[in-house]
Structure formats: structure tokens, C-alpha cells
Amino acid sequence: MWKTVVRRLLIMIPQLVALSVVMFVIAWFMPGDALRGLVGPDSPPGELTRLRQEAGLLDPWYVQYGRWIRDISQGDFGRSLAHNVPVTTVIGERMMNTVRLSIVTTFLLYLFAIPMGIVAGRRNGRLPDKIVLFYTFLALSMPTVVLALLMIFAFAFNAFNIPVDTAWFPLPAMGTIHVDAHFAGGWTAVANRIQHLILPSVTGALLGSVGTIYFLRNEIIDVQTSDFVTTARSKGVPEGKVYTRHILRNAILPVAGGMGASIALVFTGSIFIESVFTYQGMGLLFIQSIQLRDWPVANTLIMFYAIIGVVAGLLADIAIMIVDPRIRIK
What we know:
It is a single chain. Helix 4 crosses helix 11 (259-277), helix 5 (127-140) crosses helix 7 and helix 8 (227-234) packs antiparallel against helix 9. By secondary structure, this protein is mainly alpha-helical. 72% of the residues lie in helices and 0% in strands. The chain has helices at 2-29, 47-55, 61-73, 87-122, 127-140, 144-156, 185-223, 227-234, 239-251, 253-257, 259-277, 282-291, 295-323. It has 13 helices and no strands. The relative contact order is 0.14. The radius of gyration is 25 Å and the shape is elongated.
């Protein structure tokens, strides 16, 4: 297994280098930059050119790229052009919010998907299976933005006119929740954070669970007709043990294999979810950095998401080998 990990890590290096070159070239050709907003009508002539010269934005792209790689190798990710602070400071302020959202979303995703996939697989062709399939088809046809807006309309804006003093799940711009004075500030912050996590995490989990449900259902249907399952039943093994020891153990492999993709999907999908819910995480920061042409922040976030995707795939392979030691992935 360790050889697989080392081999994948070595393959990851040229992949990330190629991505960084493409990313840097695209950013270099895009018009505008964040420094334009720092120059007002009263600024002296040539002020914008001077700022660009100091920031090194007038150098050829390969010179800027070489300087960027050199600085990254020394642990320096540059300074945000829009905020004039180190990139690590800007991203660090948002990272934990995205990590919390991703953890809760992933937990809810498997909490929804695994029971629904098992029920649909065991009740193939019956009413529970049809209900689950209807849900998967509905979720597949539902854009993330549309579901997020529906959730906001129903639960943040109290569209059903439920007699409550405040919105159930307020957006960040809608203030903080009210608590009694004897609860310390720490409890206030925790409760407020949880309340703002529920809507975006449930939205991400509902849409992200479709693939896991689909694969688990199909694997259960395929495995329960296998020869070793038929043999176990002919020997009088109780049906519950047949499902837990034979069917579910083999059917769970695609779920373990898709775990890495689910983790990567949660992180990348948070870009759209955070934007709609104005959740102050890295996804919203990424959209804002592109809008402001703050390329040091945007480039760093792109590389971060790329690393997350590669590492998630590696973790998925490791999970498969742990679930079934007979499998060896090269």
C-alpha cells in the first residue's frame, strides 16, 4: 500500500505543475487587475503603471510564474492585491468555515445516502425503491443554485408565515440569533455557527448523495444474485447475515471508492453553495477574488482545490484496499 501512496504522490507533482502553468497563463491573458480600483481620479498620472511595476504585473508571464513558484517553494504565497495582506491571512480567515461546512455536509451526505441505497437495493422494484429512484432523478435534475434558493425562500425568509420571532436559519447578513444572557459568549458563537451551517450543509448533502445512493443500490442488486450469495442461502444462513456479511460487504466497495470523489465534490461544490448562501468560506472568497482580479488569492485557491482532488482520489484507493485487502491498486 505504501508503494501505491508514494507512486501517486510522485505522479501528482507533474499534474500540479501542468495545472499551475495553464492557470497562470489564463490569468495573465485576462484583462484588468485589482490595482485599478486603488487609483482614484485625483491620483497623479502614471500611478497605476507605477503600482503595476512595483507588483511585477508588467513582467512577462513566465517571469511572473517563475517568481511565484520560487516564492511558494519558500512558503510565501504572495500578497492579496485587493486586501493588501498576505494571501495566507486572507485564506486562513475563511478556511475553517469551509472545513466545518465540508465536514457537516459529508456526514449528512452518507447519513442520507447509505440507508436510502440499502433500502432501495433490498426492496428492488417495490414502493421504497421507486420512492428513492424518484428522489435521485429529482435531485439530478435540480441545479444547485435552484435548490439553494428554494431552501432560502422556505426556511430563511419564512415563506410559510410560521409564527416565529426570527428566521429559522438566517443568512449571515441577517444578524445573529438571540440567546439568554446566562449563556456565555462561546455558546452564543457556537449556536449561531451551527444555525448558519444547517441550510448550506443540507443542500450540499441532498444533491451530493445521489451518486452514492445509485451505486450502492445497483451493487446490492448485482451482488445478491451472485453465486456465493446463492450458496450461503442454500446452506441456511439467516437472511440478515447474508446481507451484512456477504451482500453489503461487497456492495460497499463502490461507496468506499467514491468517498474521495465525494470529499472533492463537497469542497468544490461549496463554491456555488457558499456564493448563494453568502457563507463566508473559501468558495465565496474564490468567486470574489476572480471578480476583483485578485490573482494571487485565486491562483492559490485553484491549486488548493486541485490538491484536494488528487489527495481525495488517493484516500479513496486506500479506503478500497482497507475494506477488501485482496484488492491492490497500482
